[in-house]
Amino acid sequence: MRCAGVVVPAILAGVDEVQIVVAHSERATLRVGDIFLKVDSNQANLEVEVEAMALAPVPTPRILWHNPPALALAAVPGTALGVLGKPSPASPAAWAAAGAAIRQLHEAPLPPWPGRRVDDVRTRLDTECEWLITNAVLPEALVIRNREIAETALRPYTPAFTHGDLQITHVFTENEALTAIIDWSEAGQDDPLWDLATLTLGHEDRLPHLLAGYGQDVDHEVIRAWWSLRSLSAARWLLEHGFDPNTPGCEFDVLRARM
């Protein structure tokens, strides 16, 4: 079998249905039976994902094959903690189990590749805020207030092994135990509170449950700052790739909640 120039092993033969999980100009993820096929325009993303999963001390998907620019992963057991914009159906114990696993990741040895620089994050944030105001995407006062809050996150920190894109749909549990964390292409050395903020974005009521497993020695103001920063920085990308940050419970509501 061949797909967009990619040689596809016979393990995919005979499958009746292909489900598009996500697709945009940069990457696509397809579900083919019990296999997830990821195709990325940037091969470095898949290389990071493969290496990060090998290093991470938490459950990750099983790699079936890696044939650039595609990566095939086995489906993981359990269900995601939830989706952005809807209440999480997972129990407090399931959130605590996720917190304990994330703490284990953050205490693991650092991956060998470097992480983001605070100055680069600040520059991108300012660029995105200017775009939001210039194009009247959001009220200027809303952007300015959240930019002020976001500054709290832009401080010196001790880097940890982070997932980097720990969205609520990327953490799976079953019977109140963590079964897998998926999508590791943005893993690296970064602020551990970035992971905690990403997971609880739009689910602020779940932060106490997450910290019950992770541990309480975190600065809640920094997590709130990351909520603002992520929502401001991601808005343009989401809009340009067919996602709506103005959906109830999503990024724009997160920004409005800070006012």
TrEMBL record:
Keywords carried by this UniProt record: Transferase
- Can the keyword Cytoplasm be found in this entry's annotation? no
UniProt xrefs under Gene3D superfamilies: 3.90.1200.10
Q: What SUPFAM superfamilies does the record tag this protein with?
A: Protein kinase-like (PK-like)
Record has Hydrolase as a keyword: no
Spell out the InterPro entries in the cross-references: Aminoglycoside_PTrfase, Kinase-like_dom_sf
Q: Where is the Aminoglycoside phosphotransferase domain?
A: 55-218
Q: What is this protein called?
A: Aminoglycoside phosphotransferase family protein
